[in-house]
């Protein structure tokens, strides 16, 4: 059994897609399992049964190691081998003869780019879509120029990355247009990202329309706070707001490169409506550091340039924003 476990966002999907195009599997359905979820669903290894794990080959992409460390230690003696590729901050790494890790946490790297480097650029167009989807525009554009891609082609890959990433945001699968597993399997049928874009019946068209509609609604939302170094936007508690929250945070970060961006949405728990928030934080583009540390203080996480909190009590929002403002304001001083 081969089990591929991956983040449902652009980085996770395009990282695995590159890997499988370089390492195709036999077509027998009973020998391959996909495990994924919404973007913030990181503790995925524990969802796999002990029977499936026995003698399995595990591949994990774009999932914080700390979220799966305990489950991995519990099953490491039973599995055949583990490959773990990620770019999130981790404090619980361990070594084992069966475990091979490729983990780097720099602000200018994502999992898709790590896989691209490992594969020596075999499927670089997909890696560029991953980088664009992970808001690494400068890195992606430089690599695209080196590939000889035109500005129009760069824009196409950027849009595809945005759309696949957009599809991953939500508190539950019902918030998404497509399940990440279905989207991954659809994308696997194409030889290149440009073939996806050119196919009028592909998932690209569905996601493009949904993205356009949701972004238009987000653009009508006024910031709850906007200072010289911090912006807060609350997108409310409807599914459209949860879907667009990460993409809108990325847009605001590009639009206001000197500001930290905080985007909040209400979690859909009826007994706690309005009391629990999901937070997307983007560090100022001119100072890509600290986002993971700020979010970790509120039981969240992430990486240097971008982080999040899944379940922030609404009463703590002011304190969170204050700490964000203090951190980046002090830097600017």
Automatic annotation (TrEMBL):
Task: Output one GO MF annotation.
Answer: transferase activity
Which keywords accompany this UniProt record?
Answer: Transferase
Q: What is this protein called?
A: Acetyltransferase
- In its UniProt entry, the species of origin is given as Aliidiomarina soli
Task: Print the organism lineage.
Answer: Bacteria, Pseudomonadati, Pseudomonadota, Gammaproteobacteria, Alteromonadales
């Amino acid at each position: 059994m081969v089990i591929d476990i991956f983040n449902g966002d652009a980085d996770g999907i395009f990282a695995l897609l590159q890997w499988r195009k370089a390492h195709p599997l036999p077509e027998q359905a009973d020998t391959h399992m996909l495990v994924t979820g919404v973007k913030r669903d990181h503790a995925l290894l524990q969802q796999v049964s002990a029977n499936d794990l026995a003698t399995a080959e595990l591949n994990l992409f774009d999932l914080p190691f700390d979220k799966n460390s305990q489950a991995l230690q519990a099953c490491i003696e039973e599995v055949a081998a583990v490959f773990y590729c990620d770019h999130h901050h981790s404090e619980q790494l361990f070594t084992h003869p069966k475990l091979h890790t490729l983990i780097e946490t720099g602000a200018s790297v994502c999992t898709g780019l790590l896989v691209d480097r490992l594969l020596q650029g075999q499927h670089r167009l997909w890696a560029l879509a991953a980088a664009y989807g992970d808001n690494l525009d400068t890195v992606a554009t430089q690599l695209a120029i080196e590939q000889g891609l035109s500005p129009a082609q760069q824009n196409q890959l950027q849009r595809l990355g945005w759309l696949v990433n957009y599809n991953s945001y939500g508190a539950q699968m019902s918030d998404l247009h497509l399940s990440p597993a279905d989207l991954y399997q659809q994308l696997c049928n194409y030889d290149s990202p440009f073939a996806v874009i050119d196919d009028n019946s592909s998932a690209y068209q569905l996601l493009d329309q949904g993205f356009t509609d949701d972004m238009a609604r987000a653009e009508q939302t006024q910031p709850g706070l906007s200072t010289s170094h911090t912006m807060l936007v609350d997108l409310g508690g409807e599914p459209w707001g949860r879907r667009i929250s990460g993409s809108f945070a990325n847009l605001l970060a590009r639009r206001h490169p000197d500001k930290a961006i905080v985007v909040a949405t209400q979690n859909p728990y009826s007994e706690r409506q309005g009391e629990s928030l999901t937070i997307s934080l983007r560090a100022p583009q001119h100072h890509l550091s600290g986002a993971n540390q700020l979010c970790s203080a509120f039981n969240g996480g992430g990486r240097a340039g971008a982080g999040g909190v899944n379940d922030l009590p609404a009463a703590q929002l002011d304190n969170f924003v204050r700490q964000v403002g203090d951190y980046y304001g002090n830097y600017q001083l």
